[in-house]
Design goal:
Layout: E1 2-6, H1 15-19, E2 24-26, E3 32-34, E4 39-42, E5 46-50, H2 57-64, E6 70-72
Antiparallel strand pairs: 1-5, 1-6, 2-3, 4-5
Length: about 70
Amino acid sequence: MKVRVDKESCIGCGVCVSVCDAVFELGDDGKSKIVAEYVEKDDDTESVGTVPDDIECVKDAVEQCPTGSISTE
């Protein structure tokens, strides 16, 4: 599954990391990003990666993100 973090709307609250640290971490800029194992693109505006479908905590992170900055395809 493709996962995308919109860094422009991310507030760096860390909810995604606390829910799914296998996929998300906070970068040096304080914004969420996809961990190195799964990342395909990481710049100032977004972090994109592909994770195995069986990592179900990604869906929890999408639902719990207070700004809706995380999406899946």
